[in-house]
Automatic annotation (TrEMBL):
Protein name in UniProt: Diphosphomevalonate decarboxylase
GO biological process: isopentenyl diphosphate biosynthetic process, mevalonate pathway; sterol biosynthetic process
UniProt organism field: Physcomitrium patens (Spreading-leaved earth moss)
Molecular function terms from GO: ATP binding; diphosphomevalonate decarboxylase activity
Pfam families in UniProt: MDD_C (PF18376), MVD-like_N (PF22700)
Length: 357
């Protein structure tokens, strides 16, 4: 066989990973390189139909270097986070047989092969809707499929996704997920575990209000660095508040106690934004619409006598709301339409359920 024929093969895999939304927030690292957090966090994985990344990874001897396309545009793959994920995945590659030819790609060959990656989001990038979480989770998962990587311990792949973006480790599981901060210096125990399947709490409905699809001004990565350096409240939060809340939240999820779930979710979102305000210079992620939404939910819950809806905001003004059940979700949509009437040209089909967890 000539060199050209030898180089003619390409292997490829495509995968999809959903985004996740934290109900106990991760904010602050104790190790920037390994992306080790200062506190544990808990999230709900969203429905991939609505918020997800789809990634295709391909390998071929004809590829001369690693390359990456995000939403159709080529970007550098030289960043440390991509390099770390690719290195860790290559180190775990095992034999793969190409079905059509019977040719075996051995571990040794994998270490010499270059990878092409194409990833697409089905929602606005960097608008505070955890696009990096879905993206890195999907990259690691699709590479695991391509390179036939088997976990040596449960959660090993989540630790690699974590090297891409902290919150990505929680997107490898569906349902309710906890990221244990871990204790080890090498981050081996800083992994995600599933607390409950999505089907565990079928009643819960998630509604996302995209207040703005603009790119956020302060990225999570730099925002949390500033908070770790300057916010005394963040230190108190990580050491005193979060450990208690993690236990309470686990219990609320297990027993499907919506009132408790809502209380902790809202309190934790508000405390996270308080630490942003406590950062010097202060970081503002919420805008007037976000604050109006908070007011609406708070008044409703007080009036009802017990929580019907919970809200949470990441590093941006968009709200993620949890309704107690379908009936409440319908009421919530009505109230949102009343409070934030769409313009005449708006596409009303976009005002729809985003499904449950
Ligand atoms: C507010 O995971 O995006 O969404 O680890 O630096 O990539 P890096 O940060 P990232 O931070 C997410 C912060 C958050 C809260 C959360 O998802 O827990």
């Amino acid at each position: 066989m000539g060199k050209e024929e030898e180089d003619a093969w390409v292997v490829m895999k495509t995968a999809r990973a959903p985004s996740n939304i934290a109900v106990i927030k991760y904010w602050g690292k104790r190790d920037e390189k390994l992306i080790l957090p200062i506190n544990s966090s808990i999230s709900v994985t969203l429905d991939p139909e609505h918020l997800s990344a789809t990634t295709t990874v391909a390998a071929s001897p004809a590829f001369e270097r690693d390359r990456l396309w995000l939403n159709g545009k080529e970007v550098s793959v030289e960043g440390e986070r991509y390099r770390n994920c690719l290195r860790e995945m290559r180190a775990r590659a095992t034999d793969v047989v190409i079905e059509s030819s019977g040719k075996v790609i051995t571990k040794e060959v994998w270490s010499t092969l270059h990878i092409h990656i194409a990833s697409e989001n089905n929602f606005p990038t960097a608008a505070g809707l955890a696009s990096s979480a879905a993206g890195f989770a999907c990259l690691v998962y699709s590479l695991a499929q391509l390179m036939n990587v088997k976990e040596k311990y449960e959660g090993e792949l989540t630790a690699i996704a974590r090297l891409g973006s902290g919150s990505a480790c929680r997107s490898l599981y569906g349902g309710f997920v906890k990221w244990n901060m871990g204790q080890e210096a090498d981050g081996k125990d800083s992994i995600a575990t599933q607390l409950a399947e999505q089907s565990h709490w079928e009643d819960l409905v998630i509604i996302i209000a995209v207040v703005s699809s603009r790119q956020k001004e302060t990225s999570s990565t730099s925002g949390m660095q500033e908070s770790v350096k300057t916010s005394p409240l963040l230190k108190y939060r990580a050491e005193e508040m979060v450990p208690k809340r993690i236990g309470q939240m686990e219990k609320a999820i297990k027993s499907m106690d919506f009132a408790e779930f809502a209380r902790i979710t809202c309190a934790d979102s508000n405390q996270f934004h308080a630490t942003c305000l406590d950062t010097s210079p202060p970081i503002f992620y919420l805008n007037d619409s976000s604050r109006r939404l908070i007011g609406l939910v708070e008044r409703w819950n007080r009036h009802a006598g017990e929580p019907q809806v919970a809200y949470t905001f990441d590093a941006g003004p968009n709200a993620v709301m949890f309704a107690k059940n379908k009936e409440v979700a319908v009421q919530l949509l009505k109230r949102l339409l009343y409070q934030f009437p769409p313009s005449a040209e708006a596409d009303l089909s976009r005002y729809d359920y985003l499904g449950h967890s």
